Every structure is written in C-alpha cells, then in structure tokens.
UniProtKB/TrEMBL annotation:
SUPFAM superfamilies: Aspartate/ornithine carbamoyltransferase. It catalyses: N(2)-succinyl-L-ornithine + carbamoyl phosphate = N(2)-succinyl-L-citrulline + phosphate + H(+). N(2)-succinyl-L-ornithine binds at residues 142, 176, 236, 273. It holds the Pfam family OTCace_N. Carbamoyl phosphate binds at residues 47-50, 75, 110, 147-150, 269-270, 297. Residues 2-160 form the Aspartate/ornithine carbamoyltransferase carbamoyl-P binding domain. This is N-succinylornithine carbamoyltransferase. The gene is argF'. Belongs to the aspartate/ornithine carbamoyltransferase superfamily. SOTCase family. The lineage of its organism: Bacteria, Pseudomonadati, Bacteroidota, Flavobacteriia, Flavobacteriales. Keywords: Amino-acid biosynthesis, Arginine biosynthesis, Transferase. It is an enzyme of class 2 (transferase). Homotrimer.
Amino acid sequence: MKHFLSINDIDSLPNWVNEARSLKKNPHNHKALGAEKTIGLLFFNNSLRTRLSTQKAAMNLGMEVMVMNFGNEGWALEYADGTIMDQGASEHIKEAAQVVSQYCDIIGIRAFASLNDKAKDEAEVVLNGFKKYATVPIVNMESSVGHPLQAFTDAITLAENTSKVNPKVVLSWAPHPKALPHAVANSFIQMMQMQEVDFVITHPKGYELDPNITKGVRVEYNQRKACENADFIYVKNWSSYSNYGMVLNQDPQWMITKAKLGNAKFMHCLPVRRNVIVEDEVLDSDQSLVIEQANNRTFAAQLVLKKMLENLK
Ligand code: CP
C-alpha cells in the first residue's frame, strides 16, 4: 500500500481489524520501524481526535511528528493548472506538495468538503493535489467524500463489541444546526459493505446519500422501525446530497433517545452535540461506545502508518 486515501485501500478488512487489535495490546512493539522518519500532519480544518490520535500513533511507532494548521497558518493554495495567480492564492499545490515531501516521509491531509460546489468536492482537489505532486505517501485524515481512518476505527470497535454472526447495524441521521459533510457516513457505508451485517440506513426524505455509495443498501424512512432489534446504532448528521449542502430538516424527533436505542450499542465518531443528536441518557450509559471509538482511532492510524513504513523500507 502506497497511499491510504479511501476504505478501498484496505485489502482485507478482517485481517486489518485483527492486526489493529494486536497493536492495541502491544502499541510500543514497533518503535524501531519509525526511527528517523517524519510524518507531517496538515490540517485545513479543525480536529481533536484525528490530530491527537494520529500523532500518538506515529509516536508509538517511533516517528517524529510535525503538525501544521494549514487552513489558518499556511499560504492559500492554488490547485488549477495554468491559472494566472493574481487573486487570493499565494502558492501552487505543485510547489507546496513537493516542498513538504522534502521534510516528511508520510503526509497526512485533512480537507473537508466545501459543501457549495459538489463537482469540486467530489474531485477531492486538496487530497488528490497532494497525491499528484507529493513524492511521499499520503494519508487521508478526512477528505471531502471520505473518512477512512474513522470507518476502519469503527470496524475495530464493532469487532470488539460483538461475537454475533450478522449483527443488525443501523446508520441513523440525526438533526444538527449546521450543514455537515457526507464523509463519515460515506466511509461507514462502504465499510459496512465489506462485512457480514444486517445493515439499514434511516434518514428523513431528502437526505439520500450518493446513490453510487448506497447502491444495494436498505433505506428505511421510519427511524423507530429501522432501530427495532438493532445491535448497533451509528448516528451521524449529514447535509442534503441532492440539494447539495442544504439543511432541510432539524426535527428534534430524529434525536436518538434511550427508548429508540433499546438494547443496542450507541456509536458516533464525535464531536457530538448533546441533546441535539443524542440525549444525555444515551451518551452517559454503558451502551455508549463513543469513548472507545475515539481510543481506537490511535490503533487504526497506527496500523495504517505501520504498513506505510514497512513499504518505505
Ligand atoms: N471523529 C473525528 O474525526 O474527530 P475530529 O474531527 O475531532 O478529528
């Protein structure tokens, strides 16, 4: 594996989950692998978990870590070829990616969707710009359309919390005051399609995700019905895909409550808005896996970096 750009870069999900669970038991066993290697983590958007867990993962492997809040502190980048750069952008991705590659052996990129230009978002201009012009491997730390490190983490957390064959997993939309991207939901769905699960998505009408991603997946518009007898309820807000980036519904009836949860385990990638997405009683219960999910971010990232470092040798 050279780059880790999407969930499709995982060649065998069961093997990767098992390897990550082994790393979790002995996180410091491969310290020599990253010696004299540097990872650069470039953030075009905010982060808590991705920033610290990827840094921790790299440190567990003996790497040096450089972090830059590129969105606030870097030069504004131009991505198009042949542009007369007399407007806002000060530097072209061609130079920036090559320069960063001289300082780093691996580059992590976080660059969210704009949610105002679907074509540009789906072209993944930032991630693909670095992929095209960097001379070192690239890790996707959440891009416009995917968050594969989160989805891999979620696969680890699911495996740790069930021994059931074909568990029922529900991906439920929940309300949020702001327009949020589709990346977490997209990668979660793709990860579900790589597993033996009884999978259903529930959301209000108008919140259908990219049909190329949801193809063949059951959608149930009645949230209570969808959640019946679930083993896991994974909750996430996303903005409309067809009415790109719009907030069409803020109905509090879609919030996840203890009654809807039943005996299921609650999952969310965090950050989460209490009593908007999910009520306190759920988050504060033993049925919530959110803290363990955040913990597993380290071991998901660590396995990805380990495979990249092995490939560099
Ligand atoms: N789940 C997740 O990616 O968290 P951050 O946005 O805080 O990194």
